[in-house]
Amino acid sequence: MNPNSTSSQESKKSFSMDDFAKALEEHDYEFQKGQVVSGKVYSHESEGVYIDIGGKSLAFLPIQEAFLGVTQDLSEALPLQLERDFLIIREQNADGEVLLSIKQLEINQIWEKLTELKSDGQSFPVRVIGINKGGVTVDIESLRGFIPRSHLLARDNLESLLDQILAVNFLELDQEKNKIVLSQRLAAQSAGFMKLFVGQLVEGNIVGIKPFGVFVDLEGITGLIHITQVSQKRVDSLSTIFAVGNLVKAIIVDLDEGRKRISLSTKVLENYPGEMLDKIDEVMESADARGERARKALPQLQ
User: Fold this and answer.
1) Is residue 166 part of a domain?
2) Low-confidence ranges of the chain (pLDDT < 70)
């Protein structure tokens, strides 16, 4: 074996390993922007905190990135040797220093929680912290959300809502646009749906009449009496039977919570086909007794 060849191979091997180590030092690939890392509080400075995250240099946490809510005393909130997670918001500079954030990490965690809440579809509480012409702003897990006036129950007296806790559902959730739009009205509808069941006799005021049916307000939830559900006899004109503002009683024949649809029927209250057209007042006056009978016969009539 040629000794020069062996020496050359060892030299190349040594050079390759050294070169690889230097590349790691120069680029430090393990620390990237957006990465969550574990670190230990090393020292306190007037403008922030130095954190040991296992790099060749200490990372820095600016004071403005240390707290999501009210600013606290750094030495108390982040005592020396405290270990916790941080988010890298800037990769290392020329001195190898990485910039960290607790605030952005907590904000990301809150958005993840809100996304889960939205997919769950359940109502949740928020506190009103401000009002403007378009609606109210609310605190939602330390972030700011907005409820449009049209999606408030007390839309004509916004001042009364300040500092109140409201149950809401999501209208829009967009982290990229930092946009959280909520609805108290949808939450109320969901709560109202929980109290309803097929076969139930309900009453409400007529709020709209269309060629295909009559819309009834049921304490903030809208139900529909389709023209085919008004009477067992053919109905040619709904406006000759109903008027906006009138009180009407009807039986729930179908519920679709996903689409927020309530199908109502008055024809199941009739004693004979066409009674709703001939004697609507009499049908409404005895609707409670008729409703009990209709509830028992409902499966056969649907």
Assistant:
1) yes
2) 1-29, 298-302
C-alpha distances out from residue 121 to 16, 101, 178, 181, 197, Å: 57, 31, 20, 14, 20
Beta bridge partners of 254: 263
CA 18 to CA 59: how far, in whole Å? 25
CATH assignment at residue 261: 2.40.50.140
How confident is the prediction for the chain on average, in pLDDT? 87
Q: What residues contact 43, with CB distance under 8 A and at least 6 apart?
A: 49, 50, 58, 80
Q: What does pTM read for this prediction?
A: 0.63
Alpha-carbon distance 246 to 46, whole Å?
A: 70
Decide: 221 and 193 in contact? Cβ < 8 Å: yes
Residue 12 included in any domain: no
Number of structural domains the chain divides into: 3
Q: What are phi and psi of 212, to 5 degrees?
A: -95, -10
Please write the tens of the pLDDT for every residue from 45-79. 989 999 999 888 899 999 999 988 777 788 888 99
- What pLDDT is stored for residue 133 in this prediction? 87
Decide if 138 contacts 128 (C-beta within 8 A): yes
Residue 28: closest CA among 109, 90, 108, 101: 90
- What pLDDT, on the 0 to 100 scale, is given for residue 300? 44
Q: Does residue 25 lie within any of the structural domains?
A: no
